[in-house]
Every structure is written in structure tokens, then in C-alpha cells.
Amino acid sequence: MEKIHGLIDAPFTPFHPNGEVNYEPIPAYADLLARNGLKGVFINGSSGEGYMLTEQERMLLAEAWVKAVPAHFKVIVHVGSTCVKSSRRLAEHAQQIGAW
Q: pTM here?
């Protein structure tokens, strides 16, 4: 198993004032973290408000992060849920989009 050497961040999920997820800042957020020497992110966990998001929002957020990060930057996706079937769908999706 590959190990992460260095720091990873558990970033907050950006929201619009109306409570909808704001995906627009993610590329700049990813760039800032990479420029500051971080090696990856852990998204959709408690710092990322994952439990407050729908399954679709969690998937779109994972896609946005995977798309935004530079090569060799790790995106770890929290897939836990109170529903086993949902966790499985989230895990399969994370694998399909190339999350670490």
C-alpha cells in the first residue's frame, strides 16, 4: 500500500448563501493547498460537511476535487453513511473517478 508522505488537509466545503454547494472555488482552493506544499485532501468527512450533503452532491464534490488537483495530489474521499448501500455507491464512484 502506498503511503502519503507529508500533510493532507480536510477542507471545508464551500457553499452559496442559499445553502447550495459552491463548486467554483475548488480549483483555486486546490491550487492554494498544492502551492503550500500539501500532498492531498480528505473530502466529504465531518470537516467537509459530508453528512449534510446529498449523495449526488458528495459525488459532484469528489469529481470537482479530482478534476482540480495537480498530478500526484491525493484526493481521499470519505464514503461513510448511515446507509450501507449509499456507502457502496459512494465508494464505487470514488474508485471510478480516480480518487486515491
A: 0.93
